[in-house]
Amino acid sequence: MSTNTPYVIDTTSETFEKDVIERSSELPVVIDFWAEWCAPCRTLGPILERLAEEYDGKFLLVKANTEEVAQLASAFGVRSIPAVFGLVDGRVRDSFVGVLSESAIRAFLDRLMPTPAETAIKEAKGLEATDSQAAEAKYRSALELLPNEPAIKIGLARTLLAQDRLEEGRALITDLERRGFLEPEAEKVKAELTLRGQGQATGGVEAARAAVEASPNDLPLKLALAEALAAAGQYEAALDLCLELVERDRKGVGESARKTMLAIFRLLGDAEIVGDYQRKLATVLF
Fold it and tell me: Where is the signal peptide (predicted)?
């Protein structure tokens, strides 16, 4: 029914994840569930294809023949066709069934288009790895449009962290904590802020290591070395040292060491090393 173009493609069960879910993180994706025998589909399809060309890459139209992707149609709850779904970031944002007027279809498509704030957020995320200052500017422009949006504040805190502006980043996380909870990503940022702040206080890994070598039995100095290692991203070495301190002085320096381990766990999330050291810590504590 359709000819593949940059803006209109046919999908299969094998390519659906790439065609729809992955691409929807880049731009809105419109899935048109249709079949050759469906007369309304033959009416709707050309309208969608023409609009895809007219919108010039603002969305991707993905054609899904229900005779070939029956399981996918079932997963979307399709009971009659044509059925159209608009996805953004892997989630269905809007949908309709049957043939709508062209003006109604345009309204549907416009609801999928990113808002100025969403555009700024996406651009900021793309800049974080290469230009934290430019990313900060984008997040701040988005925050002016949506001053209460947690995702913007979290992203802004990340960019401030990347610039070693810890106090400003901490203020944003503290503001988010007033709600009584933090999103997982905010917990990670908070953990890194904590570790980075502790690391700054130690003077760095080399200074902390030299201090321990001069006084090898000084447990607070060992804790400072563990904090410096964590701030430098040497997590396994930091966890080993913290575990030793928990074993040696559970209610003293060991308690601070335990908290440092927990901060590392929050930062690393589901990394394999986290499970390993959680088990080791539990063994020591219980």
Answer: none
